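Team,

Forwarding the record for the chain on the shared tracking sheet. I've put the sequence and predicted structure together so nobody has to dig through attachments.
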Amino acid sequence: MTASGIVATITNTALAQQQYFTAKLSGGNEVPPITSKASGIATFDLNAAGTQMKYTLNVTDIDHVIAAHIHTGKTTENGPIVVNLFIPAKATGKVTGSLAQSSIKSTSLSGPLKGKQMPDLISLMKNGQAYVIVRTAQNPPGEVRGTITVG
């Protein structure tokens, strides 16, 4: 194997690693902040090919959930929806535990990411430009929110 072949192999191996992301959700992270007893955590696991990301959204002490999304935007601003994580037919009852789990593919992307690929979403997540929000009937703009971070 040539030196360039070794470099290409090392580079491809480094690029093909799974990546993990998390978001810790609270009412204090909302814009503007709200007081809420609810909290949550979202975890994301990007496959090695970078084409699909499994997610789990766990919440504590939240009632009447009407939606959960990933939005693009800084921690101090409200931005557009880029992925729907949970859209129930009607508001939930009280939830403590798993609210949603599924996977995200490029076909899941919406808003400014519609028609784009997974690396576009991943770039936002890596740069602190994406957040998870859970909306309730009591707080339709958002009950809990958390910026997505690496790890």
